[in-house]
Amino acid sequence: MSEDLVQLVDEARRTGTIAGLPGLHWIGGRSLPSASGGRMETVDPGTGKAFASVAAGNAPDVDHAIGAARAALSGPWGTMAPAERGRLLARTAALIRANADRLAVAEALDSGKRLVEAKGDVGGAARAFEYYAGACDKFQGSSIPLGPDYVSYTRHEPIGVVAQIVPWNYPISTLVRGLAPALAAGCTVVAKPADQTPLTALMLGEILAGAGLPAGVFNVVTGTGAEVGAPLVAHPGIDHITFTGSVTTGINVMQNAAPNVTRLALELGGKSPVIVLDDADLDAAIEGVLGAIFENSGQICSAGSRLIVERGMHARLVERLVERASALRLGHGLRMVDMGPVNSRAQLERISGFVERARARGAEVLCGGKRIVDPETGLGWFFEPTILDGLAPDDEAVQNEIFGPVLCVQTADTVEQAIALANGTPYALVAGIYTRDLSHAHRIASRLDAGQVYINEFFAGGIETPFGGNRASGFGRAKGLEALASFSKLKCITARL
Ligand code: NAD
Known about the structure:
Layout: H1 3-15, E1 25-27, E2 30-32, E3 39-44, E4 49-55, H2 59-73, H3 76-79, H4 82-98, H5 100-111, H6 115-133, E5 150-158, E6 161-165, H7 171-184, E7 188-192, H8 199-210, E8 218-220, H9 225-233, E9 240-244, H10 247-257, E10 263-267, E11 272-276, H11 282-294, E12 304-310, H12 311-326, H13 345-360, E13 364-367, E14 371-372, E15 382-383, E16 386-389, H14 396-399, E17 406-412, H15 415-422, E18 427-428, E19 430-434, H16 438-447, E20 452-455, E21 470-471, E22 474-475, E23 488-496
Parallel strand pairs: 6-7, 6-9, 7-8, 9-10, 11-12, 11-19, 12-17, 16-17, 19-20
Antiparallel strand pairs: 1-2, 3-4, 5-23, 10-22, 13-16, 14-15, 18-21
Helix pairs in contact: 1-5, 2-9, 4-6, 4-8, 5-6, 6-7, 11-12
The chain binds nicotinamide-adenine-dinucleotide.
Nicotinamide-adenine-dinucleotide is lined by residues 165-170, 174, 192, 194-195, 224-226, 229-230, 233, 244-246, 249, 252-253, 267-270, 301, 401, 403, 429, 469.
């Protein structure tokens, strides 16, 4: 840890917060209070105590931010050369790295995640700006051959003002994976962070201004889904919506966007399978399965929340998983622990409800299964790493996203059965396969309904690899060069010579 980071962590542990956190909307390049004067608190999940407050916005603040974003489209941003936009994004990456310690501590306090994970997310945000910095001047159209009497070509034009709605589990990562390509494509953005985790979005406003982003290109309105999210997505001044969140809210967003025929990408939940075949490397599979479900306390849209194991591997794998999961040390994310809290009391109750109902139906609770508190302070919202076995394929715990540290084990007698189980929920976000036979793995991968398939390393890939879901997991692709398509409108120009 750097000296700065040690001091920040020490300050947070002594006082419960860190000095200098932002607390106002970021609109038109300035920090502004809500028109209503409203405020809301944000809570540290590791203690259950409020540690900062931000503006509680509503429709007039949303109007103001969209006005600023529309005006910025015809300001210097609208005529900036793509190479210059690229330099600005590269400066942003450098500034994120320079401010990484503060961003990571703020993110850990706000979301509850472990400091090491928060640092990883902040590093990933810098990397995303770096990646799209290089894309600005390479996002080119094509020339279409119509013969000697015509000239025909395509242009990628910025879609306009983008509304970006972000959940609480990966606040800075999810924001940046939409924001960086939107800026690369020349758009302006109004972001609404989750009510529970508003801080790093506001900090990013100041960082982008420091990198030279013209006022109004990036705006942040904090507040609840009903007061800020709903008027934002229904606003006629929005040209594209990037929504990341639950299926229920996603459907609502789609309905509210329909009257204006606003384009949208929905990145929704998952119930992703990790298939482990009899011939898999056992150690690699153990590491992969544990990380897939217990990273970020299981609050990951792409968590590997279902283990589909071939029968010959079941006993060996499950025994070792139970041993390792039972040994994980839980505690506040700013201490050296293996797993932090879940994000809210409501989330804790939701997880606990799923496990209690599964237990009552006769599920085998192989480890965990209870809510606990931080053993050092007696505070916070924690749930033990939990493994459930003996559930029917149509059990609610197998079919629904629990969004917590709960792994459901399913056993397959054949590879065909494993594929059928993997494809057997309404979700289709990611899938993992562990086997030593790579030809077999690729054949299975082509038959899995998922936006991305990981072979022998769950979560393999990065900002370079496109990410998104099918069916109830949504549509549209984030990350990779594919993400740029969401933020541009293709124009084809054809001339008779
Ligand atoms: P949520 O749907 O409750 O909230 C997501 C965001 O939508 C928040 O900012 C919220 O304030 C806002 N919102 C709420 N009501 C709204 C409305 N009527 N109009 C507009 N915005 C509204 O989800 P959550 O509980 O914050 O996040 C967890 C969910 O997000 C999980 O289902 C998870 O799988 C999903 N998620 C998906 C991805 C992905 O890439 N597919 C990534 C992270 C999280």
